[in-house]
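<amino_acid_chain>
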Amino acid sequence: MFYTNIESRNSKIIQTQLLLQYQYLLNIKAPLPDFQDTGFRVYSQCDEDGLLLYLFSLVGTINKICIDIAYGSPFGANTTNLICNWGWTGLLIEGNSELVKKSQEFFRQHKDTWLHPPCIIKTWVTAENINDLIKNNGISGEIDLFCLDIDGIEYWLWKSLKVIKPRVVIVEYNNFWPADKSVTVPYKPDFNRFDIHPDFCGASLLALFKLAREKGYRLVGTNKYGFNAFFVRYGIGEDIFPEISVDKCLRHPQAKDGQKKRLPEVLKYDWVEV
């Protein structure tokens, strides 16, 4: 179901009011909301739309360029709201032909994107081709947002990424791993979790936390259920968004339930310690 003109317009009005309120609180040095309390959904799977609005309200933007790998559908993606309601542009990558066609049609019909829809390409992303894919589509250097959610080799793709320097990164992780485990699936260019087990995919949050630090980023929060991690580059808004611990991000009952029920099912597989 597509959003109507009125629904989209009302959403933009409310979001603009929120943005101005956040900036006002920052300017008068009043207490700011906790990151975890600012989430809401417009298009995103959970509350990522609100979290991103809050984050960029306070750290600003430089070019409103986003890259979203394994974009999927406009409904459930982290970047749709930014593109439709905030004038962002960027590169959306998806491996499913049908989803690519539906997304292209969505943006062609949307009143706020039909004149200049985002670039959506169908391809399979690997550690070997990720940099060329991005560069060959006209993007390099500093961008505002990079999203990575492929239910597979997220750790290895982010580790290989060099052609861009995002200010904010969102990466999905497996929240059934406890805070002291730093593991990921082994690297395979054609990795498919369904070849082995649906939950044999991704990485633990600690693995991404350590990789983020190596690449110059800090963990500032997660979505409501604690499976999408938000990282901000060092030098950007440390006084507003300080680094938080991995343990703090794994306290939701959904994560606790996963440690009891889902983790035992995949412990026997060949996870790589990193």
User: Anything to note?
Assistant: The mean pLDDT is 95. The longest strand covers residues 164-172.
